[in-house]
Write a structure and sequence with these properties.
With about 325 residues, the protein is an alpha/beta fold. Helix content is about 40%, strand content about 20%. Strands 1-2-3-5-4-6-7-8-9 form a 9-stranded mixed sheet, with helices on both faces.
């Protein structure tokens, strides 16, 4: 009987939020206190890190921010500040497998990440959100909206990847091949890749390189590298671009017109690279498939509008939220 009671207690503890705030973890200071939500995934206890930032004068609305593959909640700091000054509560998770969250060896899927995120919202007592999703977060935000349409009031996709089906033109690589690539990463290789996000590189952008490169010094780097490899496979094998017509929520596409991001681009010839990742065309193609869609095109802007050109980004976001 005692053994059974202990098992029940352990399960209960894993299902409740763990609200210990931390100032620093993984060598990176986040802009707001970080809390942890405990989950069990495939019999493994894991922690999901998140920031819950409440405004001084709340308007009753909440925005859920979903990060991209090479990022975490840290890079939303200016967006969090903007939202909270407008009265919005900001919920900013590091998805399991990223940032300050656990990096378990599990089967990653957008469905599972969406499920984890919904459990977090439920635990916090949040019934409805606007989803703001960037890059890979756009694929997750789309899946989340499809799975939980009653939860999502509006959807904002900021230069999402997955506007095309990569597996139809990018050569297949095994998880083991991707893992070896992740294991060989260096701060300079991260910098070179992040340079592709912007038409013109500025020293200020090195801050995001620093954050990404902090993983290289982590004692859990092997687990991080494996998660990075498996989630590359997730993007490759789980497209969302065939389901735009199923979205019911009003959807805003903010598309930097200089973006040419393709997941697996280095595996393509120069000729093939030129055919894909053409965001000006992909944005127009996508918005035509949406039931309630709006497209804002930002000229001369690359993959991360909220970092490169915050003013037009916030103008577009503010108009849509109103």
């Amino acid at each position: 009987m005692r053994s059974k009671n202990l098992k029940i207690l352990a399960f209960f503890l894993l299902c409740i939020p763990f609200d210990t705030a931390v100032a620093q973890s993984g060598g990176v200071d986040y802009p707001y206190p970080v809390r942890f939500f405990n989950l069990t995934i495939e019999s493994k206890p894991v922690r999901m890190a998140y920031m819950d930032v409440k405004p001084a004068q709340p308007n009753g609305k909440t925005v859920l921010l979903l990060h991209g593959k090479n990022f975490n909640g840290y890079y939303w700091k200016t967006v969090i500040h903007w939202l909270t000054t407008k009265g919005y509560r900001a919920i900013v998770p590091d998805q399991v497998g990223w940032g300050k969250s656990s990096h378990p060896a599990i089967q990653y899927s957008f469905h599972r990440l969406a499920f984890n995120t919904k459990r977090l919202l439920d635990t916090l007592g949040i019934q409805q959100v606007t989803v703001l999703a960037h890059s890979m977060g756009g694929m997750l935000g789309t899946r989340f909206t499809l799975m939980y349409p009653g939860t999502v009031e509006k959807l904002v996709l900021e230069n999402p990847i997955g506007l095309e089906d990569y597996k139809t033109f990018v050569p297949y690589q095994t998880i083991e091949q991707q893992y070896q690539k992740e294991k060989s990463a260096t701060p300079e290789s991260y910098r070179q890749y992040q340079k592709s996000y912007y038409p013109v590189w500025k020293p200020a952008y090195d801050d995001l390189v620093r954050v990404q490169a902090s993983d290289l010094k982590s004692p859990d780097f092997n687990a991080i590298a494996w998660s990075n490899a498996v989630t590359y496979q997730m993007i490759y094998e789980q497209p969302v671009c065939y389901e735009w017509g199923r979205l019911q929520a009003p959807t805003l596409l903010i598309i930097g017109q200089a973006d040419r991001t393709v997941v697996g681009k280095n595996l393509l010839s120069k000729e093939e690279q030129a055919k894909h990742g053409r965001y000006p065309e992909l944005g127009k193609q996508t918005v035509r498939q949406l039931k309630s869609g709006k497209l804002v095109e930002l000229e001369g802007v690359g993959h991360i509008p909220h970092i490169q050109e915050p003013e037009p980004f916030f103008r577009a976001l503010g108009d849509f939220l109103r």
